[in-house]
């Protein structure tokens, strides 16, 4: 008997069509900001000499942002001083106690991608940026460091590390407007442990993770549009430093990795999220200060033309004609035709039931291809003799779409979930990894130690590779220490020794890990005193009793000496605070002082730990024409 096939269109809509402005080449926005403060009497004689409000939270022109116009209005009226980082408002002897500030700006935001057209090698091995430091809220702990190292392990491409870190956070940290985080910002370590937070905290965690593996990152605060609430509000994202390219934006909350949509208005960048937007300074008597929150409003004046996606893509079902209850693997083939990296996110907008979330991000290298996979479940209990058709639709951040029809029937063979996963695995591209375990060993010590000091060798060990190294052993002779180092992490190990006798000593430092050996040698001299002495001395060998002459001497010291007192024939001549290099000293004197035919120079001094020393040197000199009465006094022993 001939079967009858009925064609049905069956789908479920997974994403509502809400405007997000991602696909316009620019937006022109009106932005306003208002805040105020006041003083209230707290005593009998209130006086206000001056008050300053320094605002660091305002629109600035750079790359994708252009401030077309801005106006500042104040009550009371004053002149406003502005530079790239701060707008200052100063009132001197004001006659009122309430102050209000209003900013009106017109901004053009261009929808452009920051061009990264070459691979930036990871790790960076940058050690001196302030944007690698911890802050009040952007902190590190062992969990953050370990996870960041796990994500980055084996990767040599900075963009891939940033992308994978952002994806991990968006996948594992839930955006949650809990009362504990909406009003009070939590530290990165808290967010990592509790696995939820708002945009500030999600951004804090991202910055903490990338800084912990040696990648500079800034905290950016401003305003952005959310289509889930269909409104504008305060928002935070990050900027990451790419050497020779610049600062690249990453908005983890919005899933925008290396590109941000044109609704973002950047108002401030900082080392930490705890940096205040307004700082106040005043001089007052019997007055108490109160400030208001900053209020902001944003609306769109106009938008530009629609832009197409930077990527080309199509849907390829990996199996056809499946039976009821089957699992259908679907591949999305994506091509980047450009000579720079392109990040994007793809959303399933029409589909049967999915086995996982309906959105996935992807990063495509210049002129490359990539793949994303989903698995759909075919409905159970289909009617026999019918052919069913369903729509599978996908779109990216720029609303470019691809559609394919899926056919299935009770009469077709069943395909299991395990079979679908195995098939996807066979089509998946493996991410390239290349593990490097390079350490740098740099040991130092002072060139000398005094014999009562305990010598110390300090070794800096830096992980220059792209993976965590746990099994490091460093030894100075029989004194051994164990440690682990994350990517770009540096630790300081010190070896202390007992005081030694005078002489030269050589110490071997041996470091080993995973079959690799590093060696260093340190030589140390032990000395008994700073070695301050007269390097050379010049004076006339014959002088007359009444003659005025100069003694020219050069003082030298093996190590720095302090609090130096120079005496000639027991008379203090001069003082020096410190001697670290040879110094010429001229002593103006007379033959009368040396009638006994001897120059006695005594030098008292201290070392860097203020231990006291003395140095004495005597020289012969011939004094002529000594008066008879001086000779007589010498002969009878009076002089």
Please supply descriptive tags for the structure shown above:
disordered N terminus, mainly beta, 11% helix, C8orf32 fold, 639 residues, single chain, six-stranded mixed β-sheet
Question: Could you characterize the architecture of this molecule?
Answer:
- The structure is a single chain.
- This protein is mostly beta strands and 639 residues long.
- The protein folds into 5 domains: 9-18 and 308-427, Sandwich (Immunoglobulin-like), CATH 2.60.40.10; 26-111 and 277-303, Immunoglobulin-like (Sandwich), CATH 2.60.40.2250; 130-258, Roll (C8orf32 fold), CATH 3.10.620.30; 439-527, Immunoglobulins (Immunoglobulin-like), CATH 2.60.40; 533-635, Immunoglobulin-like, CATH 2.60.40.
- It is built from 7 helices and 43 strands.
- The strands form 11 sheets. Strands 1, 2, 21, 23, 25 and 26 form a 6-stranded mixed beta sheet that branches. Strands 3, 5, 8, 17 and 18 form a 5-stranded antiparallel beta sheet that branches.
- Strand 38 (561-568) and strand 39 form a beta hairpin.
- Residues 1-17 have low confidence and may be disordered.
Mind sketching the topology for me?
Blueprint: E1 9-10, E2 12-13, E3 26-41, E4 47-55, E5 65-75, E6 80-82, E7 87-92, E8 98-110, H1 142-152, H2 158-172, E9 174-175, H3 179-182, H4 188-194, E10 196-197, H5 199-212, E11 217-226, E12 231-242, E13 246-251, E14 256-257, E15 265-270, E16 278-285, E17 287-291, E18 295-303, E19 312-317, E20 327-335, E21 342-351, E22 353-354, E23 359-364, E24 369-377, E25 387-396, E26 401-409, H6 417-427, E27 439-444, E28 448-450, E29 456-463, E30 469-476, E31 479-485, E32 490-496, E33 503-513, E34 516-527, E35 533-538, E36 542-544, E37 548-556, E38 561-568, E39 571-579, E40 583-590, E41 598-606, E42 612-620, E43 622-624, H7 628-635
Parallel strand pairs: 1-25, 9-10, 28-34, 36-43
Antiparallel strand pairs: 2-21, 3-8, 3-17, 3-18, 4-7, 4-16, 5-8, 6-7, 11-12, 11-15, 12-13, 13-14, 19-20, 20-24, 21-23, 21-25, 22-24, 25-26, 27-29, 29-32, 30-31, 30-33, 33-34, 35-37, 37-40, 38-39, 38-41, 41-42
């Amino acid at each position: 008997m001939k079967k009858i096939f009925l064609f049905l269109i069956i789908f479920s809509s997974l994403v509502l069509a809400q405007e997000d402005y991602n696909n316009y080449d620019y937006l022109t926005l009106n932005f306003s900001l208002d805040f105020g403060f006041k003083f209230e009497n707290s005593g009998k004689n209130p006086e206000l000499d001056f008050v300053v409000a320094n605002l660091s939270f305002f629109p600035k022109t750079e790359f994708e942002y252009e401030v077309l116009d801005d106006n500042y209005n104040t009550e009371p009226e004053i002149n406003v001083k502005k530079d790239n980082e701060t707008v200052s408002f100063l009132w001197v002897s004001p006659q009122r106690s309430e102050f209000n500030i209003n900013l009106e700006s017109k901004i053009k935001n261009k929808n452009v991608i920051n061009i990264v057209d070459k691979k930036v090698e990871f790790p960076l091995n940058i050690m001196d940026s302030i944007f690698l430091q911890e802050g009040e809220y952007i902190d590190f702990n062992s969990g953050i460091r370990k996870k960041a190292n796990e994500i980055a392990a084996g990767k040599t491409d900075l963009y891939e590390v940033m992308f994978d870190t952002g994806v991990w956070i968006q996948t594992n940290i839930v955006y949650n407007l809990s009362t504990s985080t909406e009003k009070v910002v939590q530290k990165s370590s808290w967010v990592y442990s509790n696995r939820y937070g708002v945009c500030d905290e999600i951004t804090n965690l991202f910055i903490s993770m990338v800084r912990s593996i040696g990648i500079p990152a800034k905290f950016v605060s401003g305003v952005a549009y959310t289509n889930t609430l269909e409104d504008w509000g305060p928002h935070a994202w990050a900027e990451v430093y790419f050497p020779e390219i610049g600062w690249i934006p990453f908005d983890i909350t919005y899933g925008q990795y290396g590109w941000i949509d044109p609704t973002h208005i950047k108002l401030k960048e900082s080392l930490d999220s705890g940096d205040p937007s307004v700082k106040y300074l005043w001089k007052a008597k019997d007055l108490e200060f109160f400030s208001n929150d900053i209020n902001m409003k944003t609306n769109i004046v106009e938008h530009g033309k629609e832009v197409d996606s930077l990527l080309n893509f199509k849907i390829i079902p990996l199996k056809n004609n499946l039976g009821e209850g089957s699992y259908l693997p679907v591949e999305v083939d994506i091509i980047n035709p450009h000579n720079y990296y392109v990040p994007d996110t793809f959303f399933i907008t029409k589909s049967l039931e999915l086995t996982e979330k309906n959105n996935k991000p992807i990063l495509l290298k210049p002129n490359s291809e990539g793949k994303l996979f989903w698995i759909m479940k075919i409905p159970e209990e289909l009617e026999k003799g019918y052919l069913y058709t369903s729509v599978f639709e996908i779109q990216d951040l720029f609303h470019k779409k691809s559609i394919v029809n899926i056919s299935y029937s009770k009469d077709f063979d069943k395909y299991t979930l395990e079979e679908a996963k195995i098939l996807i695995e066979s089509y998946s591209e493996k991410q390239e990894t290349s593990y490097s375990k390079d350490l740098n060993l740099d040991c130092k010590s002072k060139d000398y130690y005094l014999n009562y000091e305990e010598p110390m060798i300090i070794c800096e060990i830096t992980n220059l590779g792209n993976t965590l190294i746990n099994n490091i052993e460093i030894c100075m002779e029989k004194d051994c220490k164990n440690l682990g180092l994350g990517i770009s992490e540096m630790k300081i190990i010190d070896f202390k020794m007992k005081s030694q006798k005078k002489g030269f000593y050589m110490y071997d430092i041996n470091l080993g890990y995973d079959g690799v050996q590093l060696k260093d040698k340190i030589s140390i001299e032990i000395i008994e005193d700073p070695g301050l002495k007269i390097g050379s001395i010049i004076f006339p060998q014959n002088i007359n009793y009444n003659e005025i002459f100069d003694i020219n001497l050069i003082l030298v010291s093996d190590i720095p000496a302090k609090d130096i007192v120079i005496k000639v024939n027991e008379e203090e001549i001069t003082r020096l605070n410190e001697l670290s290099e040879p110094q010429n000293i001229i002593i103006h004197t007379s033959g009368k002082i040396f009638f006994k035919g001897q120059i006695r120079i005594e030098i008292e001094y201290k070392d860097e730990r203020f231990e006291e020393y003395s140095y004495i040197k005597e020289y012969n000199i011939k004094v002529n024409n000594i008066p008879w009465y001086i000779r007589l006094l010498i002969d009878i022993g009076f002089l």
